[in-house]
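User: structure tokens for this one?
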Amino acid sequence: MAYLTTRLIAAIAASLFALTVASGAQDSSSDTSAKMSTPAVEAPTPAGDVDMDKVLAAGPLEEKALGDADAPVTVVEYMSMTCPHCQAFHVNTFDALKEKYIDTGKVRFILREFPLDPRAAAAIMLARCAPNDQFFPMVDVLFNQQTKWATAQDARTALLEISRLAGFTQDSFEACLTNQQLLDDVNTVRNVAANEYGVDSTPTFLINGKRYPGDLSIEQMSAIIDPLL
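Assistant:
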């Protein structure tokens, strides 16, 4: 009897083990199927083509760029400092883009002006006038605090408060905002983008000869960039 009992227990244990293995294999198969069935983010359809040699030709303003000049992919962003979609891109996506592609030498990123209103023009002028070559840090601060100055009743005072933190004085602040040549050059950059490259909204990205309007996620940017590497 003891012998039969032992054999029965062994048989039950073996059966349970087989069921466990089969269940695990089924779960694993299900997990694999689920993973395989999860669609990857597709690259957005470009809105048109652009001549990158023409885009990258010298313009009236110093180019504000990050990354290796010889990177295989060039991303040119046209943005407006008062644009909420531009703000969303810079707050939610730009850091990931910088870490994954710009800092690794895969992308050269160029930021260009496309002001949609006088406040946006004033803000980008201040970024260009920022002491100690603080253009990109100033852009970051202005986007992070966009709601504080872009819709303020007294935008000038709000911008002055932010600018003081970047090292502006009252005099340098006023000198920047009354620099007519700088304003004219900013508007020229915008007009060239609109008339020659088809930019009609912000943000718009020109990536290796293709034009992509709209706030792109890092997944969408990756879907565009990775095949170009």
